Amino acid sequence: MPALDDAGNEELPSAAEKNLFGKYEVGRLLGYGAFAKVYHARDVLTEQSVAIKAINKQRIMKGGLAANVKREISIMRRLRHPNIVRLLEVLANKKKIYFVLEYAKGGELFAKVAKSRFSEHLSRRYFQQLISAVGYCHSRGVYHRDLKPENLLLDENWNLKVTDFGLSALTDQIRPDGLLHTLCGTPAYVAPEILSKKGYDGAKVDIWSCGIILYVLNAGYLPFNDPNLMVMYRKIYNGDFRLPKWTSPDLKRLLSRLLDTNPETRITVDEIINDPWFKIDYKQVEFHCDHLELKDDDDTATGNNLKVMNAFDIISFSSGYNLSGLLDNQEIGERFLSTASPEKVIEKVVEVAEAEGLTVVTRKEWCVKVVGGYSCNFVMAVELRRLTEELVVVEVRRIEGEVGPSRRIWKDKIRPGLSNLIYQTGSADCR
Question: Known binder of ligand: residue 62?
Answer without folding.
Answer: yes
